[in-house]
Every structure is written in structure tokens, then in C-alpha cells.
């Protein structure tokens, strides 16, 4: 990539962030909803573990069963992700320069969720401050999958903090990373990969094998962004505690990418997150992440502030790279 193109991508990245800050996510006809419908349509017709196909799957020999479903899942993943990304690449390559720039910015806007993250998490802090625990539980249940019906205020605050820290990577930094690597198509691909993991990456009978490729490819796409996010959280808060928690706690977390992000973030904030949580009626023993006291309402706002500082750090770094590219790229 030439110095000029690197500088241009830096400017387009800042533009995409500004568009997201002003407009947020589309309230109607969100392209991600249409993609989700497309992916669900594919899965219903291809997944051998889906109810409509179980009779066919039952005739597959046992030693081949999981491999057949994995192949079906990988093929479906390609069929869902490749066409929209390839279409965007082709469109960018065949439109005037100004329109191509606008498409890059639009793709990053589509992939980002910074304003949406604040819009979902900030009201939880407000409800906790107002001592409206039932409303805080309901708001938090929109962003996490655990059962919070009996959770106290500290558990609700902890769930909101975990969501803010983890989604900082999924909704912001992963998209910025892949935009820096491959422009609008890179950001679009990241968002679609992340979405398919959220749809198919479950360890249930229906998705255990079918969603295997979606889960592994999401892990791969998030590997570098997650560690850069964890480093950013450390640099924007309590550096020593964040690095210590990252080093000693992240490996015990179920997700190889969420572990570093949340351990570093919780350590940077000086709060203790993680711990046992109720999922689908079963208590899951999760390790503790971070250090310090249990979370309180104010810590939810501190988590959002940490994400914002990290985003500012990323934008400053990208801007410096763009300036250096202009000065020294030729």
C-alpha cells in the first residue's frame, strides 16, 4: 500500500467513526438484519442437524456424521460471507474514486457499533443509580445471554461491564483493525464473520458441528484485534494490574479472545468480574477476571469511558500512521 493510500485509509477510518457517532446504527432496514435472514435461510436448508433434515442425517454412518455436518457448515459459511464481500470489492473497483471512498466509509459505518454500545450500556448505569433493579436487569438481558432474573445490583453491573469490554472488541476495535488491513471489504467481512459466530457458534445439538467453522474462523479473525484491544485497555487504565490479570487469568476463560480482553479490561478498571453465572437454568462455573472489589453502578460508566479512551488511542495511532505515510511514504 502506498503512502497516499495509507493516508487515505486513515482519513476514511476517522470519517467512518464520525458517521457512526452521528447516525448510530440504521433504525430501519438494517443490512445486518437482511444478512441474518439470508444466513438463517441457508442454515435451514443445508444443516443436516436441523429438524427438517434429521432423517437424512440419520442415514449417514456414525464415523462420518460430524465431518459431513462440518463440511456443510463451512460451505454455508462461504455461501453467506463471500458473495456480499466480493460484491463490495467489485463495486469499489468499478465506480468513480469519490464513490469508492464513500463505499469504504459506509462499510465501516455498517461494521462499527460504538454508538450502539453506549446506547445499550449507559441506560443500565442510569437504572442502577436510580435503584431500579428490575429495569436494570431487563436492560442488561438485552446484551447478555445469562439469566439475570435473580441477580443483585453488583451482578448486573458486572454483566454490563463484561459486555462493554468484550463488545468493545467485537463492535469497534475488530472493525477498525480489519479496515486498516483491507479497507471497507475487510471491515464488512469482519462484521459478517462475527455475526455468523453469534448465530451458529453454539455448542448445541443443532450447531455443535455445523457452527464449528463459524466459531473457529471468528476466533481467527479476532485473534490479533483482541490482543490489541487488551493492550489498549491496559494502556488507558491501570497498566500494571491489567497486564497481570491478562497474564494470569485470560487462559482460564472459555473464549481465547474474550479472555484477554475482559481480564485486561477488568484489571485496568480495578474491579472483579466473571464468576459463576446462570445460563439456561444451569449454573456455569466461570473464573474470576480482574482484581479489586465487586462492580458497582459507577463502574459501568467507567467501563464505557475506558472503551472511549481506547478508541481515541486507536484513532490517534491511525492518524499518526497516515501522517507518517504522507511524509515518508514516497
UniProtKB/TrEMBL annotation:
UniProt xrefs under InterPro entries: Cobalamin_biosynth_CobD/CbiB (IPR004485)
This protein's pathway: Cofactor biosynthesis; adenosylcobalamin biosynthesis
Record GO terms (molecular function): ABC-type vitamin B12 transporter activity; threonine-phosphate decarboxylase activity
Cellular component GO terms, alphabetical: plasma membrane
Protein location: Cell membrane
Transmembrane annotation, as ranges: 68-90, 97-118, 171-193, 311-329
Membrane topology according to the record: Multi-pass membrane protein
Entry keywords, A to Z: Cell membrane, Cobalamin biosynthesis, Membrane, Transmembrane, Transmembrane helix
Keyword Ribosomal protein found: no
GO biological process, one term: cobalamin biosynthetic process
Function: Converts cobyric acid to cobinamide by the addition of aminopropanol on the F carboxylic group.
Similarity field: Belongs to the CobD/CbiB family.
Record's protein name: Cobalamin biosynthesis protein CobD
The organism of origin for this protein: Pararobbsia silviterrae
Amino acid at each position: 500500500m502506498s503512502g497516499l493510500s495509507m493516508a487515505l485509509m486513515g482519513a476514511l477510518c476517522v470519517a467512518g467513526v464520525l458517521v457512526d457517532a452521528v447516525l448510530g446504527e440504521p433504525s430501519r432496514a438494517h443490512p445486518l438484519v437482511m444478512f441474518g435472514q439470508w444466513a438463517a435461510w441457508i442454515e435451514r436448508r443445508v444443516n443436516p442437524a436441523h429438524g427438517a433434515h434429521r432423517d437424512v442425517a440419520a442415514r449417514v454412518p456414525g464415523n462420518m456424521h460430524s465431518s459431513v455436518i462440518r463440511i456443510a457448515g463451512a460451505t454455508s459459511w462461504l455461501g453467506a460471507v463471500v458473495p456480499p464481500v466480493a460484491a463490495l470489492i467489485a463495486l469499489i473497483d468499478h465506480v468513480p474514486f469519490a464513490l469508492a471512498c464513500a463505499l469504504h466509509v459506509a462499510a465501516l459505518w455498517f461494521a462499527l457499533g460504538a454508538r450502539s454500545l453506549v446506547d445499550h450500556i449507559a441506560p443500565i448505569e442510569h437504572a442502577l443509580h436510580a435503584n431500579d433493579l428490575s429495569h436494570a436487569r431487563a436492560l442488561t438481558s438485552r446484551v447478555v445471554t445469562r439469566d439475570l432474573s435473580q441477580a443483585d445490583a453488583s451482578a448486573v453491573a458486572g454483566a454490563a461491564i463484561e459486555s462493554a469490554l468484550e463488545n468493545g472488541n467485537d463492535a469497534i476495535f475488530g472493525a477498525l483493525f480489519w479496515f486498516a488491513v483491507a479497507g471497507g471489504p475487510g471491515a464488512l467481512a469482519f462484521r459478517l464473520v462475527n455475526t455468523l459466530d453469534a448465530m451458529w457458534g453454539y455448542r448445541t445439538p443443532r450447531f455443535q458441528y455445523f457452527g464449528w467453522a463459524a466459531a473457529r474462523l471468528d476466533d481467527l479473525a479476532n485473534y490479533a484485534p483482541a490482543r490489541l484491544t487488551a493492550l489498549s485497555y491496559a494502556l488507558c487504565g491501570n497498566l500494571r494490574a491489567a497486564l497481570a490479570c491478562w497474564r494470569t487469568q485470560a487462559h482460564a476463560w472459555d473464549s481465547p479472545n474474550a479472555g484477554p480482553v475482559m481480564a485486561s479490561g477488568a484489571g485496568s478498571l480495578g474491579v472483579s468480574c466473571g464468576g459463576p453465572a446462570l445460563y439456561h437454568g444451569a449454573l456455569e462455573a466461570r473464573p474470576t477476571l480482574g482484581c479489586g472489589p465487586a462492580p458497582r453502578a459507577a463502574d459501568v460508566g467507567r467501563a464505557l469511558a475506558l472503551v472511549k479512551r481506547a478508541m481515541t488511542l486507536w484513532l490517534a495511532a491511525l492518524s499518526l500512521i497516515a501522517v507518517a505515510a504522507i511524509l515518508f511514504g514516497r
